[in-house]
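Homework help board

Subject: predicted structure for assignment chain

Our instructor gave us this sequence and asked us to write out the predicted structure in C-alpha cell form, then describe one feature. I got the C-alpha cells but I'm not sure how to describe them. Can anyone check?
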Amino acid sequence: MNLLGKLNWNAIPFDQPIIMGASGGMVLVIVLILGWITLKGYVPYLWREWITSVDHKRIGIMYIILALIMLLRGFADALMMRGQQALAAGGAQGYLPPEHFDQIFSAHGTIMIFFMAMPFVIGMMNFVVPLQLGVRDMAFPTLNSVALGLTASGILLTNISLAVGEFSKAGWVAYPPLSELQFSPGVGVDYYLWALQISGVGTLMTGINFVATILKTRAPGMSYMRMPVFCWTSLAANLLIVAAFPVLTATLAMLLLDRYLGFHFFTTDGQGNAMMYVNLFWVWGHPEVYILVLPAFGIFSEVVSTFSGKPLFGYRSMVAATMAICVLSFVVWLHHFFTMGAGANVNGFFGVMTMIIAVPTGVKVFNWLFTMYGGRIRFTVPILWSIGFMVTFVIGGMTGVLMAVPPADFQLHNSLFLIAHFHNVIIGGTVFGLMAGYNYWFPKAFGFKLDERWGRVSFWCWLVGFYLAFMPLYALGLMGMTRRMQHYDVASWQPWLVVAAVGVVVILAGIVCQVIQLVVSIRDREQLKVTADPWNGRTLEWATASPPPAWNFAVFPQVTDLDALWNKKQRERTQAQPPKERKFEPIEMPKNSATGFIMAFFAVVTGFALIWHIWWMAGAGAIGVFLTMLAFAFRNEEEIEIPADQIARFEQANQAEVAV
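My C-alpha cell output:
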C-alpha cells in the first residue's frame, strides 16, 4: 500500500517553465511576507486581533483582502489567455500548449466567480450589514469565522494545484462527460470539486448567518421597510445562497461519486444523463449571477442617494424589484442551454421569463437615474463607478435580452458573443459595484479616505480597458468564433483579438493604479483622515466612529424612519437641543476563537488527501474537523465583558464623531 496514494515526484511539472516560474514566484512572495511579519514581531498581533477574531468588521476586511489577491491571480490568467489568442493565428502557435491553456481558462473562471467575486461580495456584506442594521455583530460570530476559513481553504487548494498536480481542464462549469474519469483521469477535476465543495459549505454557512442576522437582529424600531436598500439586496442574495448552494453541493457530490466510486449519475453508457448535470448546475448557476449582482445593486443605491443628497427615489419599488429578481432568478436557468433540444414550448417559456426578469432590473436603473435627477451630485470616485456601471450594465442587459430569444441563441451559443455578454454583466455590474463600495466604505473601515486622483485614473483605465477588451468579442462572436480556442486559422479574427489584448493591458493599468492609490493613501493617511461621517451619509454605519469600535454602538440606536442617520441630523439642526448625557452599561461581546483557523487547516488536509487518495490523511483530517467542532461545542467561556468605563472613555474621545 502506497502511503502517499497517487502523489509522487511526477506530480510537480518540472518540464513546464511557465508553471514552475509562477509557482516559484508565488512561494517566494509568501515566504518573504511571512518572514517580514515574523521579523517585525507582528505574529502575536495578527493572531490575536485578526486570525482568531470573530468581529464581523475584521472578518469582512479579511474576505476583501482574499478577494483582491485572487483578483490579481485570476487576472494573470486573463492576461495569458488574451496574449495567447492575440498571437496564435494561422501558422503561429503562441506560447501556451493546449493542455496548459485549458487549465488557465478553467482556473480563470473558477477563481473569478468563486474566489474573487463571492468573497468580495461576502466581505462587503460582512462589514456593512450589521452596522447598517444598528447591531453589534452577526447572529453567529464564530460560524462567520469558520465560513471565512473554509473559503480560504478552497482558495489554497486551488492554488496548490498550480504547483502540485494540475487544475481542471474541463472549464469552470466542469460538464460531463469531459469531467468524468474516462476523459479526465488526472487530479485536476478533483482539485476543482473538493475546492468548491469545501468553500461551498462555508458560503452556505454565511447565507444562513446573514438571513438570521437581517431577519432577527435589527436595531429597535427598524422595521423591514426602514432597512437600507443594501440590507434588502443582501437579504435577497443570501436567501438565494441558502436555496441554491445545496443544489451545487449535491450536483458536485454526484460527480464525485461518479469519479471515486464508479457511480453513473452522468455517464451515458451507465444509463446516466450528462444533461442532468447541466440542468442542476444552472439551477444553481443563474441564481449565482444575482447572488453576485444584487449586493452591487444595493451599493449603487447607497452611493447614488448619498452623493445626490437626496433620498432614494422609489424605495418601495426598489425593494419590490429586489425581491422579484430573487424569485424570478429561479425560473430562467434553462436559457443557458436552449440548444439542448428540449423543444419549442420549454425554450419559449424560459425565453419569456428571461425577458421578464429584465423588467425589475430596469426599474432599478430608472430609480437611480431619478434619484440623481435634480440632486446636487458630487462626482467622487464611488459615483463615477456608479455612472460607469449604468451605461455598461444596460448594454450587457440588452445583449442578454437578445440571447433570450431562442433562435438568436442558437446562432450565438458557445460563441465569444456569450463571453462578451457575461463579462459585460459581471464586470460592469458586480466588479464596478464592488469598486464603488470599496472606495465608499474604505474610510469607515480604516479612518482615512482613499486618494481621489489615483482613484479617478484607475476608474477610467478600467472603463476604457473594459470596452477595448470586450466589445471586439461581440463582433468576433457574430463572425463565428467560438470560446476557449487556443489556436485559430481565420486571419481576419486576429486584429480584433489584438485590440482585446490591448484592452486587458489597459485594465491592468487600472489595477496598478489601484495598488498605487492604496500605497499613496496609507502614506498620506494623516492628511486623508476623516471623522465618522465623511460623505454626509444617510444610514447608521456613518453614526459610529471611523474605524468603529469592536462593539459598534455603545447604545442601540432608536430608528423612527428610513434614512435613520440623515433624518436624525436634520432634526438636530432644526431643534438645536443640547446633547443628552448618556449612561453606559457593560457590553458582552463574543470571545475570539481559533475554531475557524483550525477548521480551515483540517479542511485543507482532508481535501488534499482526498484529491490524491491518501486515505489515512483524509481520515486524520476528518477526525480533526470533528474534534474541533466537539471542542467548540463544549467550550466553557462564550463571551467577554467590556467594562462601562472603557466604553465611556472611547465615546468621550470620539464625541465629535459619534452621531447616535
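Reply (TA_rk): Your C-alpha cells look well-formed. For the description, you could write something like this. The two ends are 66 Å apart (CA to CA). That's the kind of observation they're looking for.
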